[in-house]
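User: I'm preparing a small set of examples for a lab meeting where we compare how different chains pack in three dimensions. I only have the primary sequence for this one, and I'd like the structure in token form so I can line it up with the others. Please keep the answer compact; I'll paste it straight into my notes.
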Amino acid sequence: MSLSVIIQQLIGGMGSSMLIFMLTLLFSMPLGLLVAFGRMSKCKPLQAIIKVFIAIFRGTPLMLQLLVVYFAPFYLFRISLPRWYRFGAVIIGFAINYAAYFAEIYRSGIESIPVGQYEAASVLGYNKQQTFIKIIFPQMVKRVMPPVTNEVITLVKDTSLAFVLAYAEMFTVAKQIAAAQTNIMPLFVAGVFYFVFNAVVAFVMEGIEKKLSYYR
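Assistant: Understood. Below is the structure token output for the 216-residue chain.
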């Protein structure tokens, strides 16, 4: 099988992997911020619940979480789910898992801001929302960019875990072609795709970091 034919067969899987990647970031990054707020809340019960949530999703394999998200509605509530829920379960599982990681990254960035900046903002007449949006959030974003970049790069590779729900992302398609053709070339092509995809992501994130280094 020629390289061009392999690439043509993998294109659909490539698109699925990129869709998982983009939707996971779209949902997990803002959700992570909400989780971080809950983690820093002065409400002790809420804080305890969020701590448990983060501990579970950071302490168990993503593969297991995907299985739970997909099968739990049926086994717990006997709900018969439509076929499209397979993809929905992939996105829900990825988004919740990465939200837990982003939450801790955001929290560390917010808590690294000196207390004096909150006091200065209060003296200038800013309320809590204005202080966070105009003063704390921009600094937090700059400080958390390196660990966020690491998580985003990890996400590119983790998209291959969607195979556990029999969702045909690129690596699954590559394995199917390799098995059918008894040829490992599709796996090498898939590896090149992940490498190039990660290189592009790293380049974009590095550019964002440089733009945020305004005071250097």
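A couple of notes for your slides: DSSP finds eight helices and no strands in the chain. Residues 14-172 form a domain with the MetI-like fold fold (CATH 1.10.3720.10).

User: Perfect, thanks.
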